[in-house]
Specification:
alpha/beta, Quinone Oxidoreductase, Chain A, domain 1, Rossmann fold, 7-stranded mixed sheet
């Protein structure tokens, strides 16, 4: 099969397909014919050789993917030809991932689905939807009429979380540092797209004079405490991402958390995205009741380098998706 297999750090332009063996079926696994996959920041990090110790070369990148089951073991609950999605579980880091024509995935990390949507739309969803859904459900318990602030709102997870929260009836304030992305955010149904500049705090106070109910923190420790100061007593802040690069804080004290404000986090896996919910989202998309934020669709493994370069540029809003 063809795959993007790295043996050392490289440039995006050096992501070229090579010929490798199709993975052999193992107990507890299924062989998936890959139809599409999203391109993620963590894969850019891995390509540069800047990942944590769980990543080792040589490696086929790709932390998520969708496709069709090609082979299963006797007695499996899955069937050949069945459509499935997957993400995380060590994909593209500890084990080979989805930048390939076939991927070998543990059955427990597979989400079966039925949909006639284009593979480009379905391929955009797994990682983005899992993280967004986990953050607003497990992390924030979003409900109707909540005022939600999404810091880092033009990121893929920020956009997806905003779309989901808006669909649940929440009012969404979402930030971006790129003024050109405000129109796209508005088109996706975000109630208050805000430019993240020196006037940001005052703008939030104008929109929510009684403070916001909940915050999804995607920028990191560089903005966390400012965001918590905008949350009303009894409200929640969920730390999910660190687009600003600051995941940890030296000399952290619990007393740095404002009194009466709850601070939590989300870092989930495939098991946190229920099969029923994934299929419900696909149905809502088919009915044009939900819009998937897609930046650009690419065709074939030869365009993976372009997809990573475009993602790294920061000029696009939404998910970059490769269809095979």
């Amino acid at each position: 099969m063809k795959a993007i297999k790295l043996t050392q750090p490289c440039k995006a332009s050096e992501l070229v397909p090579t010929t490798v063996e199709i993975p052999e079926l193992k107990p507890g696994y299924a062989l998936i014919k890959v139809k599409a996959f999203g391109v993620n920041e963590s894969e850019v990090t891995s390509r540069k050789g800047e990942s944590s110790s769980d990543f080792k070369y040589p490696r086929i990148l790709g932390i998520e993917g969708v496709g069709v089951i090609d082979k299963v073991n006797p007695g499996s609950s899955f069937k050949v030809g069945q459509k499935v999605a997957t993400m995380m579980g060590g994909m593209g880091r500890a084990i080979d991932g989805s930048y390939a024509e076939y991927m070998l995935i543990k059955e427990k990390n597979l989400i079966p689905f039925e949909s006639n949507l284009d593979w480009s739309i379905i391929g955009a969803l797994p990682e983005m939807l899992q993280t967004a859904y986990g953050s607003i459900s497990q992390g924030l318990h979003i409900k109707k009429d909540d005022v939600l602030l999404v810091r880092g709102g033009s990121s893929t997870v920020g956009l997806m979380a905003s779309v989901l929260a808006h669909h649940l009836g929440a009012k969404v304030i979402a930030t971006t540092r790129n003024e050109k992305k405000l129109a796209t955010m508005k088109d996706l149904g975000i109630d208050y797209p805000l430019l993240d500049n020196s006037a940001f705090v005052e703008e939030v106070k104008k929109i929510a004079p009684a403070k916001v109910d909940k915050v999804l923190e995607l920028v990191g420790f560089s903005t966390l405490f400012q965001d918590m100061s905008l949350v009303k007593e009894g409200g929640y802040t969920c730390f999910t991402g660190a687009l600003g690069g600051k995941w940890t804080l030296d000399n952290f004290s619990p007393f740095m958390i404002p009194t009466g404000i709850f601070l939590t986090s989300y870092a989930g896996e495939a098991k946190d995205l229920p099969t029923k919910y994934f299929n419900q989202i696909l149905q809502l998309i088919e009915e044009h009741k939900l819009t998937v934020p897609i930046a650009k669709v690419y065709h074939g493994l030869t365009e993976v380098g372009e997809a990573q370069a475009n993602l790294e540029s920061g000029k696009f809003s939404g998910k970059h998706v490769v269809v095979l």
